[in-house]
Amino acid sequence: MKRQAAKSRLVVLSVDGMHPSLYRTAEEFGLKLPNIQDLARHGAQAEAMESIFPSTTYPAHATLVTGVAPRVHGIYSHLASLDPTEHARPWHWFAAAIDVPTLWTLARAHGLKTAAISWPVSAGAPIDFNIPEIWDPAAADPHQDFQTVARHSTPHLFSELVAAIKPSPQLGLDGLRGEAGLHLWRKHQPDLMLIHFVGYDDRAHRHGPRSREALQALEHTDHEIGRIREAIKGNKHTTLVVLSDHGFLPAEREVAPLVILKEEGLFDTRGKKHPELKHLGAVHAGGSFAVFWLEEPTAAEQQALDRALRRLMDTGGIAEAVDRAKLERLGSDPDAEWILDAADGFCFSGRFDGPVVGKESKDRGTHGHLPSRKGMEASFIVNGPGVSPGKNLGRIHLTDVATTLAQILAVDFSELSGDRKPLKLSD
């Protein structure tokens, strides 16, 4: 299709895990976020943006570009494998798994040029300049697995970026992504550019969401946002959106449901060094833990699962067992038997051995909880032409974003699958 002259250009920067309190009350945390705060002050912002369930990165980012809940777009969790006995489980890296139109397919249909840096669930997507987030699941450090990224990027683009950027450890996780975005913006001039920043999320998991390490990572991301903001400011038709996918809660102790599920005989352990899969699948995602029947269970297996659930609820580490009816209302996974929501201070582990409730959690911060939990809210800020400075958008939902972005690009948002109307960004 011949490329049309874009009426508007759009840059979307996702700051993984950023709760709105981090920039709305930055001074309380000793944070310096001049760029994010200035964008919020001079643009429109949500008081909070409700995430999806489980509130994890991959299904949330799929919702951001489709405008529909996971039950509709088909990305229910970060993992593409339901087998908890699998050593290296693949993630939902590939865009082909998304069942509905996306913002990038809509942009392409209207002849716009697109670019994406490390956007979740974008490998193999019809994006003109694409460096997807993907790695070998057996890699010791996914952030250093550049060979897999290069293999799934737009042909020749990865080598072009390496030559232009000259990557170094000093750049850090988000510095590398920021440099790549700046190069694509200047050389290839996309109409839509999506970038996923992960520094804060990475440190918040390791050290806690209000730790010095996590806050320093967020300040670094703010610096990268400032560089991109400076690069695009000369184009009066460009809108800059800064958003996130979920918030964070601190974690102190872990709960290992697989220990109880194994004890109840739901995994094969007879004469085996490691448990093997039978009929029950499971996915743990920080603040949530889901189980699935992979085949029709026997009456004895169903009774065993019911006993396991009662035992888990007695641990004190579970806030709620979300049943099928509530999962349907939340637009969550239609195949889950139930999904557990961890109690305050707890997160889930994928181990089969040891105590059910551990004394200390490996992760000091977590997400994945029900989106109604205080602290799970995501952020949304938009700054650009036609946006009223200081406009308060109130409390919005992740499903409000895609149609709003489509309208900014001046393409027909009704071609997306959802029924959400674009947010009103001007008074």
The averaged pLDDT comes out at 96
| Topology pattern, helix = H, strand = E | EHHEEHHHEEHHHEHHEEHEEHEHEEEEEH
Give the biggest beta sheet. 7 strands, mixed
- What class, by secondary structure content? alpha/beta
Q: Report Rg.
A: 21 Å
- Tell me how many strands there are: 16
Q: Any idea of the CATH topology of the largest domain?
A: Alkaline Phosphatase, subunit A
Q: Strand fraction band?
A: 15-25%
Shape: globular
Please explain how this structure is put together.
By secondary structure, the chain is an alpha/beta fold. The chain folds into 2 domains: 9-248 and 376-415, 3-Layer(aba) Sandwich (Alkaline Phosphatase, subunit A), CATH 3.40.720.10; 251-366, 2-Layer Sandwich (Gyrase A, domain 2), CATH 3.30.1360. The protein contains 14 helices and 16 strands. It has a 7-stranded mixed beta sheet, sandwiched between helices. The protein is globular. The protein starts with 8 loop residues before the first strand and ends in a 19-residue tail after the last helix. 52% of the residues are buried.
Question: Can you tag this structure with a few keywords?
Answer:
427 residues; alpha/beta; Alkaline Phosphatase, subunit A; 7-stranded mixed β-sheet; 4-stranded antiparallel β-sheet; 14 helices; 16 strands; 31% helix
